[in-house]
Design brief:
The complex is a heterodimer. Chain A is an alpha/beta fold. Chain A is 36% helix and 27% strand. The chains are: A alpha/beta, B alpha+beta.
């Protein structure tokens, strides 16, 4: 069924022009089902991160077509894409990129406040329950730069989840964490995909992490290898 | 909702680097207070200058202009293509002064801009005391109106201005003139006209205006006494002096009055271009200096905001990744500089006022001044605030625009 497809990429190619013209991605097509936990692996320079940023809609310099949740995103303006990301995509990066002056709770609330679909009180409750799910209820009112690395990454995940995005994208989401925290993050992703039907796409170097996911996309020299 | 969020982020940025924010606010404060002080001071100087000038000079002056170049009237009659030879030309008697002043005054006095009209009979005379004889001007004036227009009475240092009303033979002399003639209060002085008529007056007052033309060469008598001296009728005057509500509109009002009067109507700026030029130049200097200071303040803010943008570039990237668009980012950073502008502006207005007050107490005993002149014009305060806002807005806009153009991919991928 068509509704089952959360994200589809069709004939994606991308070129870098600096320092010289170089094709990073060569005619990549694939679909990701709703609720699927997908890992993208590949050597450095294989283009996996580049592909993730194209899927994330932040990078618009490509040929081909990207559809998320049935909406074709190719050719939209930056501001339209920003609004789309806000509502439908959550991000978790290698570094947490929290706003250091804000409390953990405030950081989590930010994307929802931007979306503006709920009242501030509802958003606060949502943010708090997200933090609670990630075991951070005690840290909610702490300033984010006072938290430990693992806690910060979990706050970043809570932030990525606040608008109930259809797709959660991670760029080395566990790259900066020790094995204990890596396991915690993995379990959270697993749970989100299984229980809430959210689609997870994570770029990772961690083979163990990748092996445990539903599906692995391996890139090499800008092509899909499997 | 998103606006509230943006404001919250702006506030977090401002409060997380209090020192930088303070420096930015102080630079705006300094610019604005200097603007206020400089303009208040310059306006004070200009007003003092103008007030001094208008102690003898009316805003508009009506008089019988001497005939134009009459050396060869026939040439004008016959045109340039005919040769006219006229030898030893002499001007025959022409009408001096204004014969029927009452009619002219009646014709113009209902003009709404006019605040006062006074007739004068000015005569070139010699003042003599014993062997000392000095050239000067005897001004026959309407005692009350003259003082009403020019504030002459307040420059009296000895004797009394109003006693001229009771005494037809009383004269008020300029301080320098009196000194040169060795005259003091209640002495007699002989006045001799160009036609050889002489008359004795009693010195009933000494005036000191610091204007050489008055102090060293002028005597005031009742207008009827002056008419009598030169054998003229009741309606005769040499000059009609007019003051209007706003002296800056003198040229306009003069142009409106001119058609009603058959004599020359001249505004003060026409006859005293240097006063106007001085005022204008001082205003330009004041504005130039204060705007320069504001500009420097603007560069300071630009710098600080640029640093902030660079410092927060990762935050900007993540905000954009989360769906904040370019407008949000511009708002976040522009709001910061506008807040700096508003706080700096308010503090600057207060500080500028305080500086002005302090300066206005600095002793400065020249001419009629005791302290440095200062004017508190609300318009200066409003303008300073607006200029401050514009400067901070522009200075903040460029870094904000830069922030909005940050490519999140580039920053996040490193």
């Amino acid at each position: 069924m068509k509704e089952e497809i959360a994200l589809s990429a069709r004939a994606i190619s991308k070129y870098f022009h600096e320092p010289e013209t170089f094709q990073v991605l060569k005619d990549i097509s694939f679909d990701v089902k709703k609720g699927e936990f997908l890992s993208m692996i590949g050597k450095s320079g294989s283009g996996k991160s580049t592909l993730l940023y194209l899927l994330s809609t932040m990078d618009t310099d490509y040929t081909g077509e990207i559809t998320i949740n049935g909406e074709c995103l190719t050719g939209r303006t930056q501001n339209q894409l920003a609004a789309f990301r806000n509502a439908h995509i959550g991000f978790v990066f290698q570094f947490h990129y929290l706003l250091p002056e804000f409390t953990a709770l405030d950081n989590v609330m930010l994307p929802a406040l931007k979306l503006g679909k709920k009242s501030q009180e509802e958003i606060r409750e949502d943010a708090y329950s997200n933090l609670k799910m990630l075991g951070l209820e005690a840290q909610a009112m702490k300033q984010s730069n006072k938290l430990s690395g693992g806690q910060q990454q979990r706050v970043a995940i809570a932030r990525a989840l606040i608008n109930q995005p259809a797709v959660i994208m991670g760029d080395e989401p566990t790259g900066n964490l020790d094995s204990k925290n890596t396991d915690i993050v993995f379990d959270i992703f697993r749970q989100l995909a299984a229980e809430r039907g959210q689609t997870i796409i994570a770029v990772t170097h961690d083979d163990e992490f990748a092996q445990k996911s539903d599906r692995i996309l391996e890139l090499g020299d800008g092509r899909l290898l499997n | 909702m998103s606006r509230v969020t943006n404001l919250k982020i702006s506030r977090a940025h401002l409060t997380s680097r209090v020192k930088q924010t303070m420096v930015a606010i102080l630079s705006v404060t300094f610019g604005i207070s200097m603007y206020i002080f400089m303009n208040g001071f310059m306006t004070g100087v200009n007003d003092t200058q103008t007030e001094l000038a208008f102690s003898t000079l009316a805003h508009i002056h009506i008089y019988n202009d001497l005939p134009e170049d009459n050396t060869n009237l026939l040439q004008k009659k016959y045109g340039e293509d005919k040769l006219v030879n006229l030898r030893n030309a002499k001007v025959i008697q022409y009408t001096e002064g204004i014969k029927n002043s009452a009619k002219i005054i009646a014709a113009i006095e209902d003009h709404p801009a006019i605040t006062g009209i006074t007739p004068q009979v000015n005569v070139n005379v010699f003042f003599r005391n014993g062997a000392t004889k000095l050239n000067g001007v005897l001004s026959g004036i309407d005692v009350k109106q003259e003082s009403f227009l020019f504030g002459t009475e307040k420059y009296i240092t000895q004797g009394s201005w109003s006693s001229m009303e009771e005494r037809g033979d009383g004269v008020v002399l300029g301080a320098g003139l009196a000194e040169k003639l060795s005259l003091t209060l209640d002495d007699n002085v002989t006045v001799i006209t160009a036609d050889g008529v002489s008359r004795n007056f009693k010195v009933i007052g000494i005036i000191k205006t610091t204007i050489g033309g008055v102090d060293n060469a002028k005597g005031y008598v009742r207008i009827s006494s002056a008419r009598q001296l030169i054998s003229k009728n009741q309606g005769y005057v040499t000059d009609i002096q007019i003051n209007i509500k706003n002296f800056n509109e003198a040229t306009k009002v003069a142009a409106q009055l001119a058609p009603k009067v058959s004599y020359k109507v001249e505004s003060w700026n026409e006859s005293n271009g240097q006063l106007q030029a001085g005022n204008d130049l001082r205003n330009i200097i004041a504005v130039a200096v204060s705007l320069t200071i504001l500009l420097v303040a603007g560069f300071g803010i630009f710098n600080i905001m640029n640093m902030t943008v660079n410092e927060k570039i990762k935050e900007i990237a993540i905000l954009k990744a989360m769906g904040f668009d370019g407008t949000d980012i511009i708002q976040i950073f522009l709001v910061q500089s506008v807040i700096i502008g508003v706080i700096g502006g308010i503090v600057g207005i207060i500080f500028g006022y305080l500086v002005s007050v302090v300066v206005s107490y600095i002793p400065f005993r020249v001419a009629t001044l005791d302290t440095l002149p200062m004017v508190y014009d609300p318009q200066d305060y409003i303008l300073a605030f607006i200029f401050g806002l514009i400067t901070t807005f522009l200075a903040g806009y460029l870094p904000a625009k830069k922030a909005s153009n940050v490519d999140p991919v580039e920053i996040i991928r490193g």
